[in-house]
Fold Triosephosphate isomerase.
Amino acid sequence: MIIAANLKTNLTRHDTASYIEEVDKCAKQSNQEVFVFPAISSLDSFSAEKVEVGTQNAYPTVNGAFTGEIGLEQLEEFGIKTILIGHSERRHILGETQEFIAKKFAYFKEQGFTIVYCVGEPKEKREAGKEAMMEYISAQYEGIDTSYEKLIIAYEPVWAIGTGLTPTLEDIEDIHTELKQKSSAPLLYGGSVKVTNAKEVLSLKNVDGILVGSAALYAEHFCTMIQYADEIEK
């Protein structure tokens, strides 16, 4: 399974280094693939052996006049070859369009990056019914090479991110079954995943892992989720 932590705009560089060191210790005792996406200012050349460190964002360029962005040149300095693309906070708060997201995807695909690609729906689309919800999510696949061999897809219902709300286990399993028809890539679930529900979510059919936000900020909690995945696979 794939167990991933999106630290968002949290933890200093010093705290992130300590966090990755601690997570790497438990990851080395696990059979799972473990990813950590630190804040951009906390990226570094970490000495982790088992944890794959990725970037939460980057501009599709080597370098250039893109104030406030980070490019391939900066990522290469730290040996980073994994990127999170399409997260709902980039779409809804920062206004990234599907056209720009697809451009970013194509660029980092060309560079051979592992891409964790996020899709999901806001509350009003879910309440509009399954057909409307799936139509909305399907639009997020436009311009995306779903057969890319280094693709990982993360389904995150927007209304569940950081709210403490989660779909029912039946709903998660149902949407994952639908999305598996769109791509054979590993499919993660994200959206208020925490220690108290991670094991149940990981046990569901067609759930290949989890993408965890705020609940992953404590290394001990994140390590517990890694251990859950090991227990399920025994």
Q: What stands out?
A: The chain has a mean pLDDT of 95. DSSP finds nine helices and eight strands in the chain.
